[in-house]
Write a structure and sequence with these properties.
By secondary structure, this protein is α+β, with helices and mostly antiparallel strands. Helix content is 40%, strand content 24%.
Length: 134
């Protein structure tokens, strides 16, 4: 390879490498500050796998609500026992909304109202934590 061709090749490779590095960098646009809706359920029959599974089935029906951007349904994990870990609940749901309006739409959506009507007999207590990203 001639010297001038080699220099052109090296310059081109450096330019392409810099372009790839720049495109991999985080965008300057601020991250969207979503609203997180985290709900914990205590079952009336905390040892009933059938009741737990029935509640999980009901929670899955909420995924059809269009303002829910992400839905995570969970049960208690067998993690290390520590004083700061609350292991008294049986089922949780974690939802992400783009904004307060999306969460308000969820609260009055027919699927949410039907869920409460059909499955509320399963739980003894519910605690909700809503947090807006900062």
């Amino acid at each position: 390879m001639k010297s001038s061709s080699r220099r052109k090749f090296i310059a081109m490779a450096a330019t392409l490498g810099t372009g790839a590095a720049v495109s991999a960098m985080p965008s300057a646009e601020p991250e969207k500050k979503q609203l997180v809706h985290h709900v914990f359920f205590w079952l009336k029959n905390p040892d009933s796998v059938q009741d737990r599974d029935k509640l999980v089935e009901g929670l899955r029906t909420l995924a059809q609500i269009p303002t829910i951007k992400k839905l995570h349904i969970g049960v208690l994990a067998s993690t290390e026992k520590r004083d700061v870990v609350d292991t008294s609940w049986q089922v949780s749901e974690l939802m992400f909304f783009d904004d307060l309006a999306g969460q308000a739409t969820y609260q009055t959506h027919p699927a949410h109202l039907a869920f409460v009507e059909k499955y509320s007999h399963l739980w003894a207590r519910v605690v909700v934590y809503d947090a807006l990203g900062v």
